[in-house]
Amino acid sequence: MSARVTALVWSRYAAGGGEKLLALALADQCTDSGEYIAIDIARLAKKTSQADATVREQLRRMADDGWLGQMAGSKAFQISPEWLAGSAPVAAPAAEPGKAAKAVKV
């Protein structure tokens, strides 16, 4: 759990409602650097009291906005380092060298 990322979502995540709740659920599961959010769709849906299809659509929107990516070679998610640093999201979250992020497959 990252109290730092959770606080950032509370103060800076632009969308509201169920999508913000999903962002908070993701922040609750990540490291302080926003990486390695290993949680499945069904669990996210249960945590946010939403349907699986709704969570999938919100994850796609987060990826399209550049806020969320999927870690290469993994089912784990990662929050955009640029967003965490305070800048606007980019088309695709940047990754650490050798760990390219890719679009979310849900």
Task: Explain the overall architecture.
The protein has about 110 residues and is mainly alpha-helical. About 45% of the residues lie in helices and about 10% in strands. It has five helices and three strands; from the N terminus they run H-H-H-H-E-E-H-E. The chain has a three-stranded antiparallel sheet with strand order 2-1-3. Helix 2 packs across helix 3. The longest helix is centred in the first third of the chain and has 13 residues, at about 15-30. It is globular and about 30 Å long. The two termini are about 25 Å apart. The relative contact order is 0.16. Mean pLDDT is about 85; it is low at about 90-100.
Quick overview:
Helices cover 45% and strands 8% of the residues.
List the SSEs and their pairings.
Elements: H1 3-12, H2 17-29, H3 41-48, H4 52-64, E1 68-71, E2 77-79, H5 81-84, E3 101-102
Radius of gyration from CA coordinates: 12 Å
Task: Let me know the largest β-sheet.
Answer: 3 strands, antiparallel
State which percent range the strand residues make up. 5-15%
pLDDT < 50 stretches: 90-101
Would you list the SSEs in sequence order as H and E? HHHHEEHE
Q: Report mean pLDDT, rounded to a whole number.
A: 84
